[in-house]
Amino acid sequence: MAPINDGLYFLLESVFAELPADARMLCVGAGTGRELIHLASRFPGWHFTAVEPSGPMLDVCRQSAEAASITSRCSFHEGYLDSLPEVPRFDAATSLLVSQFILDRDSRSAFFKEIAARLKPSGILANADLASDTSSEEYPLLLEVWQRVMSGANLSAEDLSRIMEAYAKDVAILPPTETATIIQAGGFATPAQFFQSGLIHAWFAKRNSESIC
Questions:
Q1: Which of 4, 53, 170, 210 has the fewest CB atoms within 10 Å, i.e. is most exposed?
Q2: Tell me: the pLDDT tens digits for 181-208?
Q3: HEC-encoded secondary structure of the chain
Q4: Res 211 pLDDT > 80
Q5: Model pLDDT for residues 71-82, shown as the tens digit of each residue
Q6: How far is CA 170 from the centre of its chain?
Q7: Does the pLDDT value for residue 160 go beyond 80?
């Protein structure tokens, strides 16, 4: 997956290029901190807050920050967004492959509202999720290729069926236009899709200050 991640991170640099030299960044569902480390290496004046509910993953993120000598520019919050104060607000936020695990659409929009509430007016969100029209004839073909990318091995019809069932049950894979609508309902202006690789789609959108109190 590294080439896909590298392509996404490369474009993230341009999405965020006009942020202040001392921008404050919110990384939601930071995991092991890969995008944080990449952005920190490109923008040496930025400060990062990593939000991650998994303690072990946040520990890896912290260790990676220490190895990259950027700990002084990082804060680490173990938990969910609802336990993170709304002030001071951030210049931008990332949420990469996170909201797809929220199956209820209203809850998914509420997740984006939580992010919007923590951004400055016109703050920028970069969001990536798995997205596709799962009812289309091409989806099974794309899914088979995607799983080969992830596993590096050929899949039997049984394996593919099992994976499709898991995706249908545990991951909210929606058409890209529907995902963008959910983001917009969460308090953002019309999202612009700036990246696609396989099932991964990414959008950026500015906070809609009129819709957030």
A1: 210
A2: 999 999 999 999 999 999 999 999 999 9
A3: CHHHHHHHHHHHHHHCCCCCCCCEEEEECCCCCHHHHHHHHHCCCCEEEEEECCHHHHHHHHHHHHHCCCHHHEEEEECCHHHCCCCCCEEEEEEECCHHHCCCHHHHHHHHHHHHCCEEEEEEEEEEEEECCCCCCCHHHHHHHHHHHHHCCCCCHHHHHHHHHHHHHHCCCECHHHHHHHHHHCCECCCEEEEEECCEEEEEEEECHHHCC
A4: no
A5: 999 999 999 999
A6: 17
A7: no
Of the candidates 14, 19, 11, 81, the residue with the CA atom closest to the CA atom of residue 46: 19
* DSSP assignment of 133-173: -TTSTTHHHHHHHHHHHHHSS---HHHHHHHHHHHHHH---
CA distance 160 to 69: 42
Rounded to whole angstroms, the maximal C-alpha distance in the chain is 51
- The secondary element (H helix, E strand) that includes residue 74 is strand 74-78
- Give the model's pLDDT for residue 157: 67
State the CB neighbour count (10 A cutoff) for residue 48.
26
